[in-house]
Amino acid sequence: MKINFNKLLFVLLWIPVISVFAQETLLKNANKNFNNLAYRDAIDGYKSIIKNGEGSLEVYQKLADAYYFNADLENAARWYERMIENKNKLEKQGDSINNFDIEYYFRAAQSYKFLKEYDKADQLIKKVNEAIPNDSRVKYLINNPDYLDDIELQSGRYEIKNLSKNSAYTDFAPSIYKDQLVFSSSRKVRKSISRKNKWTEQPYLNLFSGIMNDSTGISFPLEFSKELNSRFNESTSFFSKDGVTVYFTRNNIIKPKINKDSTGINRLRIFRARLNDKFTWSDLEDLPFNNDHYSVAHPVLNADESKLYFVSDMPGGYGMSDIYVVDILENGTFGIPKNLGSAINTEGRDTFPFISTNGFLYFSSDGHLGLGGLDIFASNLKDTTDVKVYNVGKPVNSTSDDVTFVINDTTRKGYFASNRPGGRGDDDIYSFQEVKPLITDCMGKIKVILKDKRTGEIIKDAVIEIRDENKELLYYSITDTSGAFSFEVDCNNKNYEIIVNKENYNPLSKMLRTTREVTDLSEELQLESLAPEKGVDLAKLLALKPIYFASNKALILGKTAEELNKIVEFMKKYTSLQIEIGSHTDSRGSDAYNLKLSTKRATSTANYIISKGVDSSRVKSKGYGETVLINKCGNGVKCNKQEHQLNRRSEFIVISN
After folding, report:
1. Contacting residues for 541 by C-beta, under 8 A, at least 6 apart
2. Which of 59, 539, 33 is nearest to 265 (CA)?
3. Residues 372 and 454 both lie in one domain
């Protein structure tokens, strides 16, 4: 067989070129699907590229993102981990990595939370802090490292039930309309309709409704309105109290035109319609703040219907999507939309608002601290100066996406949706009954009593400082005659440092932590005195000059009084101190005489100290005569004057401190 080597060489040379071209085509198509939100198709493309051994950092990033944005956090976590491994490998090799978006770390952290790997998630959020120290999501974690305890405290307040009429598709966005539950679903409206959303690979969303009941949640649902439903998505409806106006979300379709932005994406818009005399929905109105270049979605009204709240990714926001509010004027027109601010909105997704009649905003967020995915949060809109956001806890929240919360403030019943495991479809609607109220602001009291550690006596006039976790001074006071002080604290799992200073005592610092379970704390703090130990001679400690008496006398002379006044001041400083005054003589003279003389001198010294205001119970005296000599100069021993003088001394021995 004759082989044409030129042809063979040509083929072999072109095989890698064809392979590279095929990979580039795969990547181009996958990226196109990704950018068009066709995440299912994008996933298939990226996985094929990786299977062929051509996985790059970009491919891992977009594959993980495709799973993340399709709410498949388990697979997202897997591929974000591969992405991080790939990034670390490239950095070790010295390769430069351009334009790595730190947001990938945050999405990976959210995915790890779904797997309940909270430590791993928190470590990634701290990496975000290294790159973006002002990120609010990081600040929430740093300021509240025990956020899981807070969530646990709010947990158990709801009894939930999966609605039996959920489908195998997506069911979410419940809204109450008269005696009906209106919701969004991708279940088929009619057999003839088979168009699929490339994002989810399910039929497009439409509005359905069923009569609410206590047994199954709702009766068998039917299409809510042929006038409102279109060939594309309709969702998140909200009705006026009189039932004649509906706001809802729809793709950017104004018949017969399908509008797309510059990237080819069909954005979301809010529409308003009214119920006519024939009880059909008409007068469809495209709201004036809709825009072809960004989405405006998920409308809800406040209790008096003077404001419309909605979600948008319009420029100038804080994150991927923010919650906005706009005034509805008396003539039905709208004011200028305003962002709800950084206390509510984060760098992540803040979405699906609902306003209860008592003025609470309920919304879903993956920027505030949660269990994973989108969690449901509550905030009192009446608190305009100190805005606080509360995770509503389990079982409403889970490690999955939990969204579209609505509640009746009278019955405390409501609905929400979740894509948690164990449901009937991709997203299911759950009913709930609130059995315990939300735990909001909580003030407690800490009462502290100061005592001497040794004696147990009350310590008054001590200086007290209370500082927060950031060392900011919150409270300053002086203990009263009972040695006590108290102060009010926020009992939302806060740390407080108590700093105590008192003259003649060692300073004391004590950390106390408040919780919502224990709102009032009582603490006894014991201070250690700086008083000298037992057995210490104050004469040596204070470096007193020798205490001299006239020959054979016990009178206190001027220079002696000056030295004794130092003892008086010291004992007034240390009010628990007790001493024994010991007077000693030399061996000259009889033993009996010397004992008698030393006793007189000790008594005279004690009386002087007592006369200067020191309590008599704190001063004891004893004459030792020549019984405790400090050298060899006893009876019959020849010593010089200086040697005998060493034995003539007064000692002030601490016997109690």
Report:
1. 532
2. 33
3. no
Distance of CA 643 to the CA centre of its chain: 75
Angstrom distance (rounded) from CA 108 to CA 88: 15
Range of the domain at 489: 443-527
Counted residue by residue, the chain has a size of 657
Q: Do 332 and 419 belong together in one domain?
A: yes
**Residue 200 and residue 132 in one domain:** no
- End of a domain among 408, 434, 460? 434
Burial of 329 (C-beta count, 10 Å sphere; 0-12/13-18/19+):
exposed
Helices and strands, number each (H, E), in the chain:
12, 35
Interhelix angle 103-114/118-131, rounded to 10 degrees, is 170
How far is 365 from 94, CA to CA, in rounded Å? 37
Same domain, 49 and 176: no
For 601-649, what is each residue's pLDDT tens digit? 999 999 999 999 999 999 999 999 999 998 999 998 999 988 888 888 8
Are the beta carbons of 347 and 356 closer than 8 angstroms? no
Encoded tokens for 356: 């209860």
Confirm whether pTM is higher than 0.85: no
* DSSP-assigned letter for residue 528: P
Q: What span, in angstroms and rounded, lies between the C-alpha atoms of 488 and 479? A: 16
Three-state DSSP class for residue 521:
strand
Hey, what amino acid is at 439? I
**Highest mean pLDDT (candidates 31-35, 123-127, 273-277, 456-460):** 273-277
Distance CA 344, CA 352 (A): 12
On whether both 483 and 542 belong to a single domain, the answer is no
Q: Residues 352-406: pLDDT tens digits?
A: 999 999 999 999 999 999 998 899 999 999 888 889 999 999 999 999 999 999 9
Which residue bears the tokens 């950095």? 91
DSSP-assigned letter for residue 456: -
- 175 in the same domain as 62: no
Return the bridge partners of 110, or none. none
Q: Is 97 left (phi over 0), alpha (psi -120 to 50) or beta?
A: beta
Last residue of a domain, one of 145, 172, 204: 145
Residue 30 phi/psi, 5-degree rounding, is -65, -45
Instruction: Please confirm whether the linkage preceding 532 is cis (ω < 30° from 0).
Output: no
pLDDT tens digits along 196-227: 766 667 788 999 999 998 777 788 889 999 99
* Angle at which helices 5-35 and 39-51 cross, to 10°: 150
Together in a domain, 205 and 352: yes
Backbone angles phi, psi at 287, to 5 degrees: -65, 145
Half-sphere exposure in the Cβ direction for 56 (13 Å, CA): 8
Integer-rounded Cα radius of gyration of the chain? 41
- Structure token digits, residue 611: 């006369």
Give the integer Cα–Cα distance in Å for 244 and 452: 74
Please tell me the distance from the alpha carbon of residue 2 to that of residue 367, in angstroms, as a whole number.
70
Picking from 197, 638, 111, 167, the residue whose alpha carbon sits closest to that of residue 125 is: 111
Task: Please count the structural domains in the chain.
Answer: 4
d(CA 576, CA 454): 10
Calculate the CA dihedral of residues 391, 394, 396, 399 and round it to 10 degrees.
90
Task: Tell me how far apart the alpha carbons of residues 462 and 500 are, in angstroms, rounded to a whole number.
Answer: 7
> Residue 14: CB partners within 8 Å, gap ≥ 6?
none
Distance CA 81, CA 68 (A): 13
